[in-house]
C-alpha cells in the first residue's frame, strides 16, 4: 500500500500533529511509501511529492513535527474546477496518483479543502478508480459542519483567551479613559472570537464586549455601548471578529478600505477592523485607543497549544487512515462528543458532501441578546478544548521546529 497526504488552506498550530497521525497510522498499517504533497493539490498537479518515510525517520522527528506550527508540507488555496469545465486537471491528478501506485489519499483542511476530497472521490467513482479519498478536518475557525469541533480551534482559543487575560491586566494600569480593540480571525463564524469569553474568571474581569459576525454590527450602537461602559469603567477591552458585518452585509473592515483582495474561493481578505474601530472611537469619543490585530499569531502560537487539541489532531489523522483501510472513501474523520464533564469525545466518520463548502456558525442561542457576549452554554462547550499544556522542545531557549527544506 502507498498513500499520499497533503495540507491545504490556512494553517493551525496542530495541523502537523494530524500529519504525524496519518503518517504513524499508515506506517503501522504496513504502507510501503507515505508521500507528502508539497503545497497541497497544486503541488500534486505539478508532481511535487516528497517521501515522508525518508524525512520522518526517528521518534524525535515525529515529536518535533507535532510541535511545529503551520504546514510542514506547505499549503495552497486551490479550487478544483468542475469535471465538466476542466477534466484535464482530474486526468492529470489521477495519472500522478497511478504513477506512484497510490491507494489512499488524505487531505488535511477546512471546508474549502473538503471540496477537493468531494470532487476527487466523485471522479474516482465516475472512472471506476479504487483510490480512497478521506478528509482530515482542521481550522482555527471551527466552522466545519458534522464535527463537534475542529482540530486547531482549541489551541487558537487558548491563545485568544490567554492574550485577552494578559491584555486586560496591561490595560487596567492607568486612570485615564482608554479603549483597546482586539481583532480575532474567523471570517463568517465567530467561534474564535467567542473564545475571548473564556478569559473571565476569579482573577480576570474578562473582555468588556465581544462582537461576532453572527450578529449584525451597528456603528452607532458601538459608540453608544462604549460611551455607556466608560461611565462605569475607565479602561475597556473589546474583542471583535475580523468578519463583523453591517446590517447591509458589508464587512466593517470595508468601511476603511473597499478594495479587499479575494482568494480563489471568493473570500475577501479581512483585516483592519480593529484599527478602523479604534480610530473611529478616538475621533468620536476623544479617548485614547489602541488596535491589536492578532492576525496569524493566533494560529501559529504552538508554544501555547492545548494538549487536548494536539492529541485529538493526532487521533483524527489516525482515524482517517483507519477509515480508508476499512474501505471508506468520500468521507472525513470527525469528532463526536458524548460528554462535557468529564470531557469525552471520539473520532467517527461523516460523508464529505455534508462538510464540503458548508459553514457552521455560533448558535444565536449561545450569544447574549444584546450581541455583546457569550452564554454559559458556550463556555461549557469550549472549556474542555483548551485544557492541557504541551511544552515545546526547547534548544538555546527557543522552541525547535521541524522544517522541510
Ligand atoms: O481559514 C482560516 C483562516 O485563518 C481565517 O480565519 C482567515 O480569515 C483566513 O484563514 C486567512 O487566510 P490567509 O492566511 O490565506 O490570508
Keywords, separated by commas or semicolons:
single chain, about 400 residues, alpha/beta, Rossmann fold, 2 domains, 7-stranded mixed sheet, 4-stranded parallel sheet, 14 helices, 13 strands, about 35% helix, globular, binds 6-O-phosphono-beta-D-fructofuranose
Nutshell version of this structure?
This protein has helices spanning 15-28, 40-45, 52-55, 59-66, 87-99, 111-127, 153-171, 191-194, 219-230, 253-256, 273-285, 297-300, 307-325, 376-382, and strands at residues 2-7, 33-37, 49-51, 104-109, 132-137, 178-184, 209-211, 235-241, 288-293, 331-339, 344-351, 394-395, 398-399. By secondary structure, it is of the alpha/beta class.
Set out the fold topology.
Elements: E1 2-7, H1 15-28, E2 33-37, H2 40-45, E3 49-51, H3 52-55, H4 59-66, H5 87-99, E4 104-109, H6 111-127, E5 132-137, H7 153-171, E6 178-184, H8 191-194, E7 209-211, H9 219-230, E8 235-241, H10 253-256, H11 273-285, E9 288-293, H12 297-300, H13 307-325, E10 331-339, E11 344-351, H14 376-382, E12 394-395, E13 398-399
Parallel strand pairs: 1-2, 1-4, 4-5, 5-10, 6-8, 6-9, 7-8
Antiparallel strand pairs: 2-3, 10-11, 12-13
Helix pairs in contact: 1-4, 1-13
Bound molecules: 6-O-phosphono-beta-D-fructofuranose.
Amino acid at each position: 500500500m502507498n498513500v499520499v497526504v497533503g495540507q491545504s488552506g490556512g494553517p493551525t498550530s496542530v495541523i502537523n500533529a494530524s500529519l504525524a497521525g496519518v503518517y504513524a497510522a499508515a506506517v503501522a498499517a504496513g504502507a510501503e511509501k507515505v508521500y507528502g504533497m508539497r503545497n497541497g493539490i497544486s503541488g500534486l498537479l505539478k508532481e511535487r511529492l516528497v517521501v515522508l518515510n525518508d524525512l520522518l525517520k526517528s521518534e524525535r522527528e515525529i515529536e518535533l513535527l507535532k510541535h511545529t506550527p503551520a504546514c510542514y508540507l506547505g499549503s495552497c488555496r486551490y479550487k478544483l474546477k468542475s469535471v465538466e469545465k476542466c477534466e484535464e486537471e482530474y486526468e492529470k491528478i489521477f495519472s500522478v496518483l497511478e504513477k506512484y501506485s497510490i491507494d489512499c489519499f488524505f487531505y488535511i483542511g477546512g471546508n474549502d479543502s473538503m471540496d477537493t476530497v468531494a470532487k476527487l472521490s466523485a471522479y474516482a467513482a465516475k472512472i471506476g478508480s479504487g483510490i480512497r479519498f478521506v478528509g482530515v478536518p482542521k481550522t482555527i475557525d471551527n466552522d466545519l459542519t458534522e464535527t463537534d469541533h475542529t482540530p486547531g480551534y482549541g489551541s487558537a482559543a487558548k491563545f485568544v483567551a490567554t492574550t485577552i487575560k494578559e491584555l486586560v491586566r496591561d490595560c487596567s494600569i492607568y486612570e485615564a479613559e482608554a479603549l483597546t480593540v482586539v481583532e480575532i480571525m474567523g471570517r463568517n463564524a465567530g467561534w474564535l472570537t467567542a473564545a475571548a469569553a473564556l478569559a473571565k474568571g476569579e482573577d480576570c474581569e474578562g473582555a468588556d464586549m465581544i462582537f461576532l459576525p453572527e450578529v449584525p454590527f451597528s456603528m452607532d450602537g458601538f459608540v453608544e455601548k462604549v460611551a455607556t461602559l466608560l461611565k462605569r469603567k475607565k479602561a475597556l477591552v473589546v474583542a471583535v471578529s475580523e468578519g463583523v458585518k453591517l446590517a447591509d452585509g458589508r464587512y466593517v473592515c470595508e468601511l476603511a478600505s473597499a478594495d479587499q483582495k479575494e482568494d480563489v474561493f471568493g473570500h475577501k481578505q479581512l483585516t483592519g477592523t480593529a484599527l478602523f474601530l479604534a480610530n473611529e472611537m478616538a475621533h468620536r469619543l476623544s479617548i485614547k485607543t489602541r488596535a491589536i490585530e492578532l492576525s496569524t499569531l493566533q494560529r501559529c502560537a504552538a508554544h501555547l497549544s492545548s494538549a487536548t487539541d494536539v492529541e485529538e489532531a493526532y487521533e483524527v489523522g489516525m482515524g482517517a487512515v483507519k477509515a480508508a483501510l476499512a474501505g471508506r472513501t468520500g468521507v472525513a474523520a470527525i469528532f463526536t462528543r458524548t460528554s462535557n464533564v468529564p470531557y469525552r469525545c471520539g473520532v467517527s466518520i461523516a460523508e464529505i458532501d455534508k462538510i464540503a463548502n458548508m459553514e457552521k456558525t455560533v448558535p444565536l442561542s449561545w450569544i447574549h441578546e444584546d450581541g455583546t457576549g457569550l452564554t454559559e452554554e458556550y463556555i461549557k462547550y469550549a472549556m474542555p478544548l483548551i485544557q492541557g499544556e504541551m511544552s515545546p522542545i526547547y534548544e538555546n531557549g527557543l522552541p525547535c521546529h521541524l522544517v522541510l527544506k
